[in-house]
TrEMBL record:
Keywords: Transferase. GO terms for molecular function: transferase activity. Its EC number is 2.7.1.-. The keyword Transferase applies. It comes from Cutibacterium avidum. InterPro entries: Aminoglycoside_PTrfase, Kinase-like_dom_sf. This is Aminoglycoside phosphotransferase family protein. Pfam families: APH. It comes from the Bacteria.
Length: 412
């Protein structure tokens, strides 16, 4: 549905970043709210996904007066240099003749068709009952539903507790759903400790079982050794060779120029520094083959579960495929090197863990490669504070860039 709104000219803002992150976004929000018979009272930018020169997606927290009363709402907008994508037709398109912007209200995400059902306890209870995930039918007041994470137009994860059982629900896009289910099934057949598929729906809802243990991200700061470096490597060694038959994903180092552009778009004064790091990483890894080892693809402390000092499970296997073992280990090193919001005791604890683990990783992969790939991952993580609109996103981004540079300086 195309509706007029004042948007200004496209000019140099081909990807819509200036429009969607600036004060002019208010005109779009007002138009969307008024079209739905509401009055926009106040708003602020909540989340930004930017692909410089290509597209921008942003979400906004908005307080709206509806005919039934005031309510907090989440709105999303997407602008693309090439014009609306096919799935944008599921949203309202606001146009002034020079730019088209897709606008939607959560949970009606145009790329996540299942979210509009998964977000409501009444509908979630009906889905659980229809799939037979528990004995008998359940009602909304018998389940506890909460959102774990939402990346607009990409994915959402919810946790639902029902009948003494905890399930996790992934809300996925068209085109990747069946491939994700197949990856889970592959690791289950290989006895890799990962979530099992409990149920699926036609609108891309994937129900997964709960893993035992606790996230490594939590165990890092508890008493005792969370796990050994050897058990982390051992978990990756359990991945079956069939993982290498899956499509290959670009590594972080392959995409380092892209991530540098994203970071520099938010922090232009860091452009030269980022360009230098990207050049060192690319030159240092030149000639290194792609590799054909089974890899997880996003191996970090939030994905790993531990219990009694050992690794007991791995989450988010959507990204498994062929690659280099150094990429997985580098991902973990980069994440641990860039943890935010730690106090002095916690920071010292993480340094001690890295000091114990990295020599083990160095014995399994080339140490120079490990650090250069870790730096590339860290640069990708530097896009996070701005994307999530953290209150101190500038200093946090700088600290991550510093960590990436420190990794490079160990070998450059």
């Amino acid at each position: 549905m195309r509706r007029p709104a004042w948007l200004g000219g496209r000019g140099k803002d081909a990807d819509g970043a200036v429009l969607l992150t600036g004060p002019e976004a208010e005109e779009l929000l007002k138009a969307a709210v008024e079209h739905a018979d509401g009055i926009l009272l106040e708003w602020h930018l909540d989340h930004v996904d930017a692909n410089p020169g290509q597209s921008t997606t942003a979400t906004y927290q908005a307080r709206v007066h509806w005919p039934t009363g005031e309510r907090q709402e989440l709105f999303g907008m997407s602008a693309r240099a090439s014009g609306p994508a096919m799935t944008d037709s599921r949203a309202d398109i606001y146009v002034d003749g020079s730019r088209e912007v897709a606008v939607w209200r959560y949970p009606d995400d145009p790329d996540l068709p299942g979210l509009s059902r998964a977000a409501y306890p009444e509908q979630m209870a009906a889905i659980i009952s229809d799939l037979g995930l528990v004995d008998g039918r359940v009602s909304a007041d018998q389940i506890n539903l909460r959102m774990i994470g939402y990346r607009p137009r990409r994915r959402a994860v919810l946790c639902v507790e029902v009948a003494n059982r905890r399930l996790y629900v992934k809300v996925l896009r068209d085109g990747i759903f069946q491939a994700t289910v197949a990856r889970h099934d592959l690791l289950t057949r290989a006895s890799v400790p990962s979530p099992r598929v409990a149920g699926i729906t036609d609108d891309n809802l994937l129900f997964l079982t709960e893993l035992p243990g606790h996230p490594l991200s939590k165990a890092l700061f508890e008493l005792g050794n969370p796990c050994t470096a050897e058990s982390l490597v051992g978990l990756l060694d359990q991945f079956p060779p069939q993982v290498c038959d899956l499509p290959r994903r670009s590594s972080w180092s392959d995409s380092v120029d892209h991530y540098c552009r994203m970071v520099a778009a938010a922090m232009p004064d860091q452009q030269a520094r980022l360009d230098r790091m990207a050049r060192i990483i690319s030159q240092g890894l030149m000639g290194v083959p792609q590799g054909n080892e089974p890899t997880h693809g996003d191996f970090h402390e939030g994905q790993i579960h531990v219990w009694n000092g050992q690794v007991c499970g791995i989450l988010d296997v959507d990204t498994i495929g062929p690659g280099r073992r150094a990429d997985d280990l580098a991902c973990l090193v980069a994440h641990l090197s860039t943890v935010q919001h730690m106090n002095a005791v916690q920071a010292d604890r993480v340094r001690q863990i890295l000091a114990a683990w990295v020599p083990v990783f160095d014995s399994r992969v080339d140490p120079v490669e490990l650090r250069l790939r870790s730096a590339a991952v860290a640069i990708s993580l530097a896009t996070g504070p701005y994307r999530s609109q953290e209150a101190n996103w500038g200093p946090e981004t700088l600290s991550i860039i510093d960590a990436a540079e420190a990794l490079i300086n160990q070998v450059a």
